[in-house]
Write a structure and sequence with these properties.
- It is globular, with a radius of gyration of 18 Å.
- Strand 4 and strand 5 (62-63) form a beta hairpin.
- Helices cover 35% and strands 26% of the residues.
- It is built from 8 helices and 10 strands.
- The protein has 237 residues and is an alpha/beta fold.
- The protein has helices spanning 39-46, 88-97, 106-115, 131-143, 161-176, 188-194, 212-216, 221-235, and strands at 2-11, 14-24, 28-33, 54-59, 62-63, 73-76, 149-153, 180-185, 197-202, 205-210.
- Helix 3 crosses helix 4 (131-143).
- The chain binds adenosine-5'-triphosphate (ATP) and magnesium ion (MG).
- Adenosine-5'-triphosphate binds next to strand 2 and helix 1.
């Protein structure tokens, strides 16, 4: 469904995504990697915000940067950007209008704000929102166009334990609605809990892709992750 073929991204001579080839075809896929591994770079290339230096990304056989995907994709950036003077409701309407006419969509925005747990703050200016509330609004914004595919860059970052649980439940709900979810994370427990498959990225290279259980082979995920990364480090010239 989403296929990466020899994907490469380099800044001058610095290669940050290195010959990345992978096919993803599960409801919830997790990109797991340390800080600087290349997760955000890959996600930005998927949604067309960054151009690859080499290789391709296709969704259902067409290039992911193709305009036909604009309406089908939802994207939550690592640090969502908002217009501070708008209210949560106004921001969702504004975001939705970028996709086309929006008359009669107020119940949809209300439903989204309820889903992510900030309905009570719907008429407050975003400048008054806490970090976790902003994260939740970023999530709602990614859903505003009813996307088939969701790309979420560390969606659980900055949320309290209850918030994390609620957002994980939202992601499971999206899965059951038949949407595909890709998420970047470095939180191993979240991967174990909700991802059907995981891709382990280290220094721009794919070290593993497949089932979480198969990856762990009976070990705690954290230990196994460290082992795989250290093994890779040893093999480097
Ligand atoms: N504009 C740029 N110029 C040079 N190097 C860059 C640029 N943008 C990103 N990089 C480098 O690309 C690498 C991958 O960064 P990326 O943001 O994709 O990592 P990440 O896996 O998302 O990390 P994190 O978990 O911290 O969000 C890093 O080494 C980073 O320094
Ligand atoms: Mg990142």
């Amino acid at each position: 469904m989403v296929d990466f073929s020899h994907l490469t991204k380099a800044y001058k001579k610095k290669v940050v995504v290195d010959d990345f080839t992978l096919s993803v075809d599960v409801p919830i896929f997790g990109f797991l990697g340390q800080n600087g591994a290349g997760k955000t770079t890959i996600m930005k290339m998927i949604v067309g915000l960054l151009a690859p230096t080499g290789g391709t990304i296709t969704i259902d056989g067409a290039l992911s940067s193709h305009p036909i995907f604009k309406k089908k994709l939802g994207y939550m950036p690592e640090t969502p950007y908002f217009y501070e003077h708008m209210t949560g409701m106004e921001f969702l309407r504004f975001s939705d209008e970028l996709f086309g006419p929006t008359r009669g969509r107020t119940p949809h925005y209300e439903g989204l704000l309820k889903k992510v747990g900030i309905f009570d703050a719907r008429n407050a200016q975003i400048r008054t929102y806490s970090k976790g509330m902003r994260q939740r609004l970023g999530f709602a914004q990614a859903l505003v166009n009813d996307p088939e595919y969701l790309f979420l860059d560390e969606p659980l970052d900055g949320l309290d334990p209850i918030g994390r649980r609620e957002m994980k439940a939202v992601m499971m709900g999206l899965k059951h609605e038949g949407r595909k979810v890709f998420l970047n994370t470095h939180i191993l427990a979240d991967v174990e809990e909700i991802c059907d498959e995981v891709g382990i990225i280290h220094q721009g290279k794919l070290l593993y892709a497949g089932g979480v259980k198969e990856f762990c082979a009976g070990m705690p995920l954290e230990e196994r992750f460290t082992e795989v990364v250290e093994e890779h480090e040893k093999q480097r010239p």
